[in-house]
Design brief:
Strand content: 15-25%
Number of helices: 17
Shape: globular
Largest sheet: 12 strands, mixed
Number of strands: 22
Distance between the termini: 54 Å
Helix content: 25-40%
């Protein structure tokens, strides 16, 4: 038994100790909060490889960079997540009808726009109708490749309404398609089918961030105070810089997004894995009266390019960085890919027209739009084959305008980002109503096969159909596909950790990918 005096002494000492720990803990708590606060006020500075067209909003989107920026602001019904699966985003759930012609979504009405307005099914219907009415930056509306499949879309020009999109309740959205549409869910991912509001010339979304300022070289995103999502970053700066790698090395920026150039990893700079996410094309202008209106010239040009670039494979791949020469429009093991030997046999059929092509180019020089670090390489390589070329000297900022609107060039080089998980992904580029299609590369036989293939659901039929499409692309030559570029994120690994959930570009919401150290 302890004595009373001893017990009181121990109790007194214990109270002093508790009081001391409490006092000491106050600055520790403040210090901990300061660290947390600093992380929550951190700005993520991200460089992108080319400019964008402002103001950015879902119906304006026609480039990969624009989509990547807007994914932080606007939320579509669904998103593409791990292993290529489609997951809910602004929708809580979705179901297909048995005939694959109707999609039903349950909208998450707890989500709010950055002005506090609650999200409803009507917001999606209204956004799509407004977006489809807007004059597009490209040849087609960025929503056209999906909207044309919806019931009643043929009457939209008269009514301004999408009768096949119904909103019976604020929580329920139903889309009725004219026919089974295999890729409907996949195409509904991305920013272009997000819900948005336009208030006082500002475009608002339900994402974690909102636009604070916008210019063609610099955008600032700040937090949407009404979002229930959380992030360590209070703002994101999107920056277009020509010296992005130098800026990253100097610590002026944190990330280079969609990086296509090689950079060795070191103690400060890390990189994600590379993904073959874009195809590089030499698009050929086949409009009436143009040089490549005649298919024999297109076939001859395809053969010359195939012959020349095989001999300069290493040089081309080194110039383009993360690039692999491949003349087939579908990746290896994709449905629609044919044997290389068969592709080469079709390409070789153009050899018989080469002399005529070269002679005609001397009388009528081929107008070209080449940009970037392969401009001189392509010009010299094709000239070495005997072709007479005229450089239109179109600046990089004018290249897309010529591709979509002006069509001055006979040959125009660009990359096309498409869904490669399903062969219907090429519709985005080569389909008549594709969001990044141009009239200069329209070929009727190619377009018809793409239209017919969209409703196929039998896997065996899909493979055979799109293999026939591959053959037709080589025969009709809307352009010469020269290979795949794969890109990654370069980032300051002394500042950031990258999440293992980075699986493809459709899951590149920056604040989900990167965490502050």
């Amino acid at each position: 038994m302890f004595g009373k005096a001893l017990v009181l002494k121990l109790l007194k000492n214990w109270l002093v100790l508790v009081a001391t720990l409490f006092v000491v803990s106050i600055p520790l708590v403040h210090y901990s909060q300061a660290i947390f606060s600093n992380k929550n006020t951190q700005t993520l500075k991200v460089a992108y490889p080319h400019q964008w067209v402002t103001p950015l909003h879902p119906s304006s989107q026609h480039t990969l960079v624009e989509d990547a920026i807007m994914l932080n602001v606007f939320e579509s019904l669904v998103q593409r997540g791990g292993n290529g699966l489609v997951l809910p985003l602004a929708a809580k759930s979705f179901t297909f009808s048995k005939d694959f012609k109707t999609l039903n979504f349950q909208i998450n009405t707890q989500k709010k726009f950055s002005n506090g307005d609650q999200l409803s099914s009507q917001d999606f219907k209204k956004s799509w109708e407004e977006a489809f009415s807007n004059t597009p930056n490209s040849s087609n509306s960025s929503l056209a490749d999906i909207i044309i499949e919806i019931e009643g879309s043929e009457d939209f020009a008269k009514t301004g309404q999408l009768s096949g999109v119904k909103t019976p309740t604020p929580e329920t959205l139903t889309i009725s398609f004219k026919r089974p549409f295999r890729m409907a869910l996949m195409h509904l991912t991305g920013a272009r089918f997000a819900a948005f509001k336009k208030i006082n010339d500002n475009y608002l979304g339900t994402g974690l961030f909102k636009f604070k300022t916008q210019s063609n070289n610099y955008i600032v995103l700040s937090k949407n105070d009404y979002s229930t999502e959380t992030s360590e970053f209070s703002s994101i700066e999107a920056i277009h810089r020509e010296d992005a790698q130098e800026a990253l090395a100097n610590g002026d920026i944190d990330i280079i997004a969609i990086n296509g150039q090689v950079h060795e990893e070191n103690e400060n700079i890390g990189h994600s894995y590379g993904e073959e996410n874009v195809g590089a094309w030499l698009h050929l202008n086949g409009k009436d009266g143009r040089f490549f209106a005649e298919s024999k010239y297109r076939k001859a040009f395809q053969y010359l390019v195939w012959k020349a670039l095989q001999n300069k494979k290493d040089e081309l791949e080194s110039k383009l960085g993360h690039f692999r020469l491949d003349f087939q429009p579908y990746l290896p093991f994709s449905l629609g890919r044919i044997e290389n030997s068969e592709a080469e046999e079709i390409i070789s059929q153009g050899k018989q027209y080469v002399e005529e092509l070269i002679a005609e180019s001397k009388k009528n020089p081929i107008k070209v739009c080449f940009i970037g670090n392969v401009k001189d390489f392509l010009f010299d390589t094709l000239t070495e084959q005997g072709l007479t070329l005229e450089d239109l000297k179109i600046p990089p900022t004018g290249m897309m305008e010529d591709y979509y609107k002006n069509h001055r060039a006979d040959i125009l080089v660009s990359v096309a980002s498409v869904h490669l998980s399903d062969p219907d992904g090429l519709y985005h580029l080569l389909g008549k109503n594709g969001a990044i299609h141009s009239p200069m590369i329209y070929r009727e036989k190619v377009s018809q096969l793409l239209e017919d293939g969209r409703s196929l659901t039998d896997q065996d039929a899909i493979a055979e159909h799109y293999q026939n499409l591959s053959r037709t692309i080589f025969e009709e030559v809307p352009g010469v596909h020269i290979g795949y570029r794969y890109s990654n994120y370069l980032y300051r690994k002394d500042r950031l950790n990258i999440e293992s959930t980075v699986l493809d570009r459709h899951y590149d919401i920056l604040w989900k990918i990167f965490k502050a150290k």
